[in-house]
From TrEMBL:
Transmembrane segment boundaries: 21-44, 56-74, 86-116, 136-156, 168-189, 209-230, 290-309, 321-341, 353-372, 378-396, 417-437
Protein name per UniProt: Equilibrative nucleoside transporter
Taxonomic lineage: Eukaryota, Viridiplantae, Streptophyta, Embryophyta, Tracheophyta
Subcellular location: Membrane
Transmembrane helix is among the record's keywords: yes
Source organism per UniProt: Erythroxylum novogranatense
Amino acid sequence: MILADEAGDSSRLEGKTKALVVCWVLGLGSLVSWNSMLTIGDYYYNLFPKYHPSRVLTLVYQPFAVGTMALLAYKEASLNTRKRNLAGYTLFSLSTLMLVVVSLVNTVVLSFALLLLDYYTNWQQLDLATSGKGGIGPFLGICVIVAAFGVADAHVQGGMVGDLSLMCPEFIQSFLAGLAASGALTSALRLVTKAAFDKSINGFRKGAILFLSISTFLEFLCVLLYAIYFPKLPIVKFYRAKAAKEGSKTVSADLAAAGIQTSGNQEGLGDAKQLDRLSNKQLLLQNIDYAISLYLIYVLTLSIFPGFLYENTGEHKLGGWYAVVLIAMYNVWDLISRYIPVAERVKLKSRKGLIIATLSRFLLVPAFYFTAKYGDQGWMLMLTSFLGLTNGYLTVCIMTEAPKGYKGPEQNALGNLLVLFLLAGIFSGVALDWLWLIGKPFF
């Protein structure tokens, strides 16, 4: 089939609901593995109590995500988006599967040791000796896998946001909602598994294996959906064909997967239009307020979540459930807030208003500090909920408004640039999160 001369026939806009569902699942798969790591933070604190796992693992993750994203954003115009996204989801699948295998091997070794020794009288001491505390070797191995997560994240988030930016805004909103849903889903599962395995032998590891197994399945599902189902939806083919006519080269492989080939004349015309598009520098200058706002949103969020919530909130009536409940509250409100902008009446579109709202969030820093020091758990739950609410709402407002008015290739480039600033904000926030440890013993 030759691409060209295809008008916006209504039949070509069919499948929007299906596309929204797929975008949501793809968003879920973009962060479910990493959110599983964050949500089972209590397991890693039990295993590696001296290494500040929630802070260290996040700090390992982000340089690889930001560095890879910077390179991909620079080269986005010539990249094959299909290969990029499939590579990201595949790397997520393999890395998560590796964590499952490592946990299973440790469980088998522990079980074998328990059979050899006096299980009924000494299991508690043996569990402490063999798996209750992890050494630097296993921790470094986990860090390597987390670094792979960072590389996969840069491939998927930048690639998907860039790809969906040249389609309708609802697709980006659905994808971003899926990102938040990964946190809410893992938090809900963590509450269930903690209740189920909390008092069982080696319950931490059992819950972790269940978590990571579900994540592996979801990542593999994303590979299949993106490779086989998504490119064949009529509305997706329409928008990608439209972007190709406007000079985009990044969609050619996805169009070919859908049975659409570009003609030689169209490719020549696309090259000419590609030269007419705004450069990355021009796009960034025109949208610098959006980019900085995204950066600041995630600087603030990641300077509190998850490290502060795990290590700086003290002991309360909820005991070991406290940090898990706080993480769950953040994730649930982050998810809910990403659907609020669907209603145009409550969507913040003013660029000045977005900047003011973003800067106002920094009042949460003293609020969290004094609440952790003097307040009770009710106030902390409220603040954490508000942190998630503002994070998701402002993210969707910016990501859906910024690409409007640009051609397909420019929208793809802008999407990549915005994700770069988002990841840079996360990296900076993770680094600043260590400031909460000032005055406290490091180990």
